[in-house]
């Protein structure tokens, strides 16, 4: 009786593969789950195990042939022809796949990334192939345009295959890795550690056949195989190895023109440089800020505010405030309240342009810019216009902690209508904040500094802060921008105006 060896499922949207290498030839005895051949797709390499013990009969698809899913690869004659010797001789390599087959294979999928976000970058793998994992233990971290997403293990077992390495781009709902779950999972680890061993011996002169697609690309691009590090079985060179080497070769000469004028010191300078790829968050920050400059007619107006009244009020009530509400009374709640008050009088600062329409918002979703180790993020305090001082302070504290811990969700940063940015916490005395599109206004706070001021005809020392309002001049006129900033100044210099709605 004969058994057919067919092409397995290759992955989502992958319909064909190339037969890269046959590990057995017709007439060879094979054991159950012993690797027969290796297939190569656009993204991954797939090993095809033997579905039965016996003797390899006819090979229908030779190396280099393109085959579709479920296509016939070869046949196996079952029965007495199967010799146990190959399995015994290669125990470390064959026992692991057999155990993996006994265990349930669980897919690790890319979780939902948020509204309108379709892809992410694999930032860090916390586990490697062969590691035992517990249910809900963090396997890797994905990075989107705005937030980092941790991916937990869906089941306990052993990580058997990582489908996307660090730096790879993955789509929402895609497959990240495979876990062998259940009692048989623990013995899969030797397979992961056994593979690299022969690779080290490859340079000694072993005759290792490279993947046909890799040979083709090397021939077309004139790449010396000796310069390519192989990641396949026994150190064989795969298609992705050649593409990686080709990319590195193209990228390497790029600095040459800049280095040419300073040839005497270029080598030493290059040795002291460090090139680090921008994170997706940093790339998005750069793109959005530049788009803001290119799109909006951005202008900034300045004023200064005497902070003595706010500081006196805060000092008088901060103890009672914290005791009653369980949160510290800071300056941000005063600025948020003052901005809400001013936005009611100058609603175009709280509006946005949509094509040839102006969309006025009858609510205030206040964005609070926060610096984190990963970059600038702007969590949003929704319906800030309906909140009390205590509710605002609690919301800011919660969003700030989530931002620092990288726990902000996409929903936490969407829908803002106006933004406050506090550069003063870093010591900035004056700056021109950049709009957070599609918003039309952003208020910049700065360092509080004692300065001599004339009050009532006398020179006195006052705690002063410069304020900056950047606005989109397409929708906000100079009069409206100055009026807004003056109203913020008046509310802060006399907080009683907020109570009286003046």
From TrEMBL:
PROSITE patterns: BIOTINYL_LIPOYL, PSBD. Residues 2-77, 105-180 form the Lipoyl-binding domain. InterPro entries: 2-oxoacid_dehydrogenase, 2-oxoacid_DH_actylTfrase, Biotin_lipoyl, CAT-like_dom_sf, E3-bd_dom_sf, PSBD, Single_hybrid_motif, SucB. Its cofactor is (R)-lipoate. Keywords: Acyltransferase, Lipoyl, Transferase, Tricarboxylic acid cycle. It catalyses: N(6)-[(R)-dihydrolipoyl]-L-lysyl-[protein] + succinyl-CoA = N(6)-[(R)-S(8)-succinyldihydrolipoyl]-L-lysyl-[protein] + CoA. Its EC number is 2.3.1.61. Pathway: Amino-acid degradation; L-lysine degradation via saccharopine pathway; glutaryl-CoA from L-lysine: step 6/6. Residues 209-246 form the Peripheral subunit-binding (PSBD) domain. It holds the Pfam family E3_binding. E2 component of the 2-oxoglutarate dehydrogenase (OGDH) complex which catalyzes the second step in the conversion of 2-oxoglutarate to succinyl-CoA and CO(2). Belongs to the 2-oxoacid dehydrogenase family. This is Dihydrolipoyllysine-residue succinyltransferase component of 2-oxoglutarate dehydrogenase complex. It comes from Jannaschia pagri. The gene is sucB.
């Amino acid at each position: 009786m004969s058994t057919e060896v067919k092409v397995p499922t290759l992955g989502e949207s992958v319909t064909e593969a190339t037969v890269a290498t046959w590990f057995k030839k017709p007439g060879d005895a094979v054991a159950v789950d012993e690797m027969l051949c290796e297939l190569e797709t656009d993204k991954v390499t797939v090993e095809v195990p033997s579905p039965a013990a016996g003797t390899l009969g006819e090979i229908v698809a030779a190396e280099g042939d393109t085959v579709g899913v479920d296509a016939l690869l070869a046949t196996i004659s079952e029965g007495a022809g199967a010799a146990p010797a190959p399995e015994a001789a290669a125990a470390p390599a064959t026992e692991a796949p057999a155990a993996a087959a006994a265990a349930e294979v669980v897919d690790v999928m890319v979780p939902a990334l948020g509204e309108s976000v379709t892809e992410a970058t694999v930032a860090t793998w916390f586990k490697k192939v062969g590691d035992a994992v517990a249910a809900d233990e963090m396997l890797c971290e994905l990075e989107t345009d705005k937030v980092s997403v941790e991916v937990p293990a869906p089941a306990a077992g052993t990580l058997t295959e990582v489908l996307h390495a660090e730096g790879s781009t993955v789509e929402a709902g895609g497959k990240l890795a495979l876990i062998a779950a259940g009692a048989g999972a623990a013995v899969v680890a030797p397979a992961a550690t056994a593979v690299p061993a022969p690779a080290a011996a490859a340079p000694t002169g072993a005759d290792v056949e490279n993947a046909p697609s890799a040979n083709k690309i090397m021939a077309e691009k004139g790449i010396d195989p000796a310069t390519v590090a192989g990641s396949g079985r026994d150190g064989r060179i795969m298609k992705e190895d050649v593409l990686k080497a080709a990319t590195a070769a193209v990228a390497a000469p790029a600095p040459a023109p800049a280095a040419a004028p300073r040839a005497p010191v270029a080598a030493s300078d290059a040795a002291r440089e460090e090139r680090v790829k921008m994170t997706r968050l940093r790339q998005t920050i750069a793109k959005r800020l530049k788009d803001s400059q290119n799109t909006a007619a951005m202008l900034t107006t300045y004023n200064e505010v005497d902070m003595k009244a706010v500081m006196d009020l805060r000092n008088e009530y901060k103890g009672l405030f914290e005791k009653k509400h369980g949160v510290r009374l800071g300056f941000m709640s005063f600025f948020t309240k003052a901005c809400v008050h001013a936005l009611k009088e100058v609603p175009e600062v709280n509006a946005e342009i949509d094509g040839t329409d102006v969309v006025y918002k009858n609510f205030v979703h206040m964005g609070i810019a926060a610096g984190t180790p990963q970059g600038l993020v702007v969590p949003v305090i929704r319906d800030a216009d309906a909140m009390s001082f205590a509710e605002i302070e609690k919301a800011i504290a919660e969003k700030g902690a989530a931002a620092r811990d990288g726990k902000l969700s996409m929903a936490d940063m969407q829908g803002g209508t106006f933004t406050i940015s506090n550069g003063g916490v870093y010591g900035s005395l004056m700056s021109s904040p950049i709009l957070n599109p599609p918003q039309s206004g952003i208020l910049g706070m700065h360092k509080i500094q004692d300065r001599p001021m004339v009050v009532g005809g006398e020179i006195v020392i006052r705690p002063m802060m410069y304020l900056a309002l950047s606005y989109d001049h397409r929708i906000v006129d100079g009069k409206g921008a100055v009026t807004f900033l003056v109203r913020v100044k008046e509310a802060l210099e006399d907080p009683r105006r907020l109570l009286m709605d003046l």
